Sequence to fold (297 residues):
Amino acid sequence: MTHLAFVAVAYALGVGVPLAFALTAWQRAAAARRKLAAIDPRGQRP
Amino acid sequence: MSSSPNRSLHRFANPGQFLRLSGAVLPYLAIGAALLTALGLGWGLFVSPADYQQGDAVRIMYVHVPAAWLATGGYTGLAVCSAMSLIWRHPLADLAAAEIGPVGAGFTALCLATGSLWGKPMWGAWWVWDARLTSVLVLFFLYIGHVALVRAFDDPTRGYRAGAILALVGVVNLPIVKFSVDWWNTLHQPASIKLTGAPTMAPEMLWPLAIAALGYTLCFATIVTMRTRAAVMERRIRGLLMARAASDPGA
Fold:
């Protein structure tokens, strides 16, 4: 494969950037759900 | 008197309704995003042909082009949410706009980085002050400005208003990004896929590109939905804590 290093870095970024955003968003939503359940256990959880 | 579609819009903008609806849709959105992105990028990397001039460097296209489309598409979403925030004062539009900003900035940075990685072997330079590249850099700064402005005020409502105005002013940059390759002589190539006319790209390259673009679009939607859900819950937590503090001032 020609230009292997350029292609490899581009694909690493192309997978890594969306994955990093998705993981941090999932962590944040999970933390908020836990905290909300602790504060208001009777509330209807989504 | 509000019209029926407007009432529907308001009902959908209800945060509780949003949490219920998005909670049901999110798993399908996430699975579709993962499958289509993996298929599009895998096809582009291992199956699609190399370009007769660019060699395998053309495979960067399957990351770069979807990221570029989402940089401008995400900004359009940001502008729509900002307009809804200013016109109808939808609380959900404020939160969605605030959450689109960082994700849009991330995809724009991805577009710039992969463009640079494609430009170096093809043009011999990591960066040129070409109209397309410069207007996308301006788009990135608009996203960063929006992210900073929304979080710059003690009163979140003032931050959302200021951010919405900046986002709407920045819309002027979108046609510049789109038509920069037609209006000026640029090193960046003109569009290979147009709404008005057949694509100038081989189907063996067009299919993986379309699938990767659809996968990235679902990724963007999944991430923004997850972030907006988190923001809705965080706001509910703040509201509950403030109500608790108000009812028990000695605590």
Observations:
- The interface with chain B takes residues 1-4, 6-7, 9-11, 13-15, 17-18, 21-22, 25-26, 28-29, 31-33, 35-36, 39-40, 46 of chain A (CB under 8 Å).
- The two ends of chain A are 48 Å apart (CA to CA).
- Chain A has one helix and no strands.
